[in-house]
Amino acid sequence: MKNAFLFFFLVNGLFSFAQIKGKITDEKGNPLPSVTIYEDNTYNGTTSNEQGSYELSTKKPGKHTIVFQFLGFKTQKLALDITSFPYNLDVKLTEESFTLNEVVINPKDNPANQIIKNAIANKKVNIEKTAKYKADFYSRGIFRIKDAPKKILGKKLDMFDEVLDSTRSGILYLSETVSKITFQKPDKMKETIIASKVSGNDSGFSFNNAASANFDFYDNYLPFDVNVVSPIADNAFNYYKYKLEGSFYNENNQQINKIKVTPKRESEPVMEGYIYIVDDSWAIYAVDVNIKGEQMQNPALNLLTLKQNFSYNSESKIWVKNTQTIDFIFGILSINVSGKFTYVFSNFEFDPTFTKKTFTKEVLTFEENANKKGDEYWNTIRPIPLTIEESTDYTKKDILQTKKKSQVYLDSIDKKNNKFHLLDPITGYTYKNSFQKWSANYAGILTGINFNTVQGWKIATGLFYTKNDRENGKYTRFGADFDYGFSEDKFRSTGNFIHKFNNTNKSEIQISGGNRVAQFNEEKPIKELLNSVTTLFFEENFMKIYENNFISFLYQREVTNGIFMKAKVDYLENKPLSNTTDQTFFPKEKNYTSNNPWAPKDYTTPAFEKYNLIKAKLEARINFDQNYITRPDGKYNFSNGNYPILTLGYEKGFAGSEKNYEFDHLKAKIEYDAKLGNKGILSLNAKGGKFFNADQISFVDYKHFNGNQTYIGFSESYLNVFNLMPYYTNSTNDSYFELHTEHNDKGYIMNKIPLLNLLKSNLVLGYHLLSIPNRNPYAEYSVGLDNLGFGKFKMFRLDYVRSYQNGFQKDGVIVGIKFLN
User: Fold this and answer.
1) Which of 115, 263, 497, 502 is the most buried (most CB within 10 A)?
2) CA–CA separation, 257 and 118 (whole Å)
3) DSSP letters along 798-817, please?
4) For residue 784, which phi and psi values (nearest 5 degrees)?
């Protein structure tokens, strides 16, 4: 019996190692990368690596017909009779001879156009053939850096030094995954990662997955940073010109048409290259296209090349994508990085039976110990052999990883980085103990120097201690913030403690307290730096503040998928503050306004009387369309955007120093982004609420709205701000409704306008509404250009805004400087 079991495992091991392998070259002996290799009339396939080497696993010896398919070369179909493994088979491919039949056609007719029209007309039929399937999936990703600079903007770039060669080039990232996927059109996917490998990190989990590789040219758009129009989209003729460059017959005697795809307008989200269409069935045979980074509004990306190869099964009569590669080059600030992702789909099972429980909100999960597979496993399962460079990188970084985990190494790195420098008292200082996973930070004073009319010149800093357990998703942080106002001659401090329990339900506790200065609007619509500039240079002291002594307790967590709860209790002692300085760089005839938002010209009456209050808040955020990825290091949530996000809140003020300060406040918010194909994104943010028993509450506890009187914008979008509304003129302790909506065309209109299309910008239309009782509604209309900038730096936005409240109020231009946020 023992010998029988031994025989079983030996045979099983033989089959596991059963391989056809070799090297593929052209007629001159040059290796051919990314050649598609598959067993005829099966869905068992692979592709060659960058050195032309390949390995194709088969289940048993005997007769096999192997197909070698590569764009621009004649497909070879070889019949083999294999008696033992491994079976070595080197293949030499010859260039394809394309023919273009000489036919008499109307000069206005274009044979390529008719082929594309047929492909579009037959999309539904071809889509339905692969609308439901199960398959095996393999991916490999690699990032390389070349000629890395030693410094950027005067700062050393030494984070990669240990993996770079003498030319400062090398592999930054290398990873692989093996998974099983279940898919149903249009977007239902379930993926289980069986094995995951990251070079230099045996605790790491690759982010490579099938969803990120799901680029379907039968769809109208390919989802990149913006939706890129497919060459066979329903509206493709509005974006592309086509030319039939020739045709050839494959090994199944099917005619393949090679169509050159050229954009009508380079500025639009389009691609350029070739699409191969099978005659009669009008299915996709292969795709080889380029997309520029600026065309998908990713200026750091220079070029992306996407290739797909499809194989044909004469029994099922289905063309199916079996290999895909994505090559890209990006560069910024003298850093040049290239990358490549290779994907292999195999062992398809079409039209499987799915139940309601097949697809859940969990779209990806990892098998236990998926990242602990050894070389023995990978050598049997990996469908694409490693190159010498990749093998060397795994070996080199495995050794380096062991070294990096040692206390001696970590202490030596900390000793170097923990050195104290002359400017650290100003710029800040960090002391780390990497082996014990803690750090202590001093924030410095450079970013804490500001000016306001209450405190005068203010210096702020902080001390913090952090213990971070990334592997288990935990961290603990406690610290203190300090500030001193010179004109006010007052020192304030606060302390805080944060502990995150895990990275699964994001359970977290926060405790804080102390004495601080706070804006009346807790969302802090006025940035301290900007307020300093407007105050000192223009005598516009927009920021209004008060003193807040407090103790706060907060607990938050995800109670179930898609529902995030937050509970907070604050004990508050609020005091009014007054201006203490009239300093300015350029004195003008006008004076600073008072620190009373109610009465900016009243310098004696405080905005409110000192009072005490306890506030309790309960908030629930509901994401109706939340999917998630489960990894051993945590749960990662994301939304497909099919449904809005709803936030509900209740706030109660009680135990006040006077009864009239107590109140109840109900509120709700809806956020939604509607993706309109290649026509941009329509975004909505609607908020409403109602106060009860709040007739005489303090102005501090009113609902304040985010105005803007500086003509400077900070955020990516203006879905939470009124850009011309004074900060506190519409504050309320009654009911309110607030609506912000923007349509960003993502270049859909701007790309078509001569000269303006050179800006490569986005047209943004906005509408903003505020309604409160006993007052005419306040409204803003805006039109602007986003994605402005220089070269690869697109960090600016310009908007023309008009405001109305009982008629026209004012207009102005808002300059958006996004990097200041």
Assistant:
1) 115
2) 12
3) EEEEEEESSSEEEEEEEEEE
4) -155, 175
Neighbours of 788 (CB within 10 A): 19
User: What range does the domain containing 347 cover?
Assistant: 111-403
Are 657 and 676 found together in one domain? no
Peptide bond into 269 cis (omega under 30): no
Q: What is the pLDDT of residues 295-347, one digit of tens each?
A: 988 888 999 999 999 999 888 889 999 999 999 998 888 888 999 999 999 99
241 belongs to a structural domain: yes
Per-residue pLDDT at 723 exceeds 60:
yes
Residues 654 and 695 in one domain: no
E strand map for 333-381: 335-350, 362-366
Tokens of 449: 């120097």
- 481's CB contacts (< 8 A; 6+ apart) are 460, 461, 462, 493, 494, 496, 514, 516
Pair (498, 556) in one structural domain: yes
Q: How far is CA 464 from the centre of its chain?
A: 29
Instruction: Read off the tokens for 124.
Output: 């539904």
| Cα torsion angle, 132, 137, 143, 144, sign | negative
Question: In this structure, is residue 751 part of a structural domain?
Answer: yes
With a pLDDT cut of 90, the percent of the chain lying above it is 75
Res. 8: pLDDT tops 60: no
Is residue 118 located within the same domain as residue 204? yes
Residue 412's SS3 state is: helix
Farthest CA pair distance, the chain:
104
DSSP 703: B
Which residues are CB-neighbours of 744 under 8 A, at least 6 positions away? 680, 681, 683, 717, 762, 763, 764, 786
- What is the number of domains present in the chain? 4
- Distance from C-alpha of 296 to C-alpha of 227, rounded to nearest angstrom: 7
| Amino acid type, 489 | D
Give the model confidence (pLDDT) of 238-251 as tens digits. Answer: 999 999 999 998 88
Question: Is residue 102 one of the residues assigned to a domain?
Answer: no
754 shares a domain with 711 = yes
Judge contact between 532 and 452, C-beta under 8 A: yes
740/772 same-domain check = yes
CATH number at 25 reads 2.60.40.1120
Q: Is 95 exposed, middle or buried (0-12, 13-18, 19+ CB in 10 A)?
A: exposed
Token pair 């709700």 is at which residue? 668
Radius of gyration of the chain (CA): 32
- Name the token pair of 804: 């109305």
For 380, the enclosing helix (H) or strand (E) is helix 375-381
Helix axes 407-417, 388-405, angle to 10 degrees: 80
Contact 762, 741 (CB under 8 A): no
Same domain, 253 and 355: yes
**Shared-domain flag, residues 613 and 486:** yes
C-alpha count within 13 angstroms, C-beta hemisphere, residue 620:
10
Residues in the chain: 821
Amino acid at 563: I
At 574-591, the pLDDT tens digits run 999 999 999 999 887 788
Q: What tokens appear for 256 in the block?
A: 């393949």
Structure tokens at 241: 């010109």
- When pLDDT is cut at 50, 70 and 90, the band that residue 187 belongs to is confident
User: 304: closest CA among 270, 327, 335?
Assistant: 327
Rounded (5°) CA angle 213-218-221: 70
pLDDT, tens only, 347-388: 999 989 998 889 999 999 999 889 888 888 998 889 999 999
Residue 820 Rama label (left phi>0; alpha psi -120 to 50; beta): alpha
Strands 362-366, 626-631: pairing kind: parallel
Nearest 5°: phi and psi at 401?
-65, -45
Cβ(34)–Cβ(342) below 8 Å: yes
Contact (CB, 8 A) for 180 and 150 = no
Q: Does any domain span residue 340?
A: yes
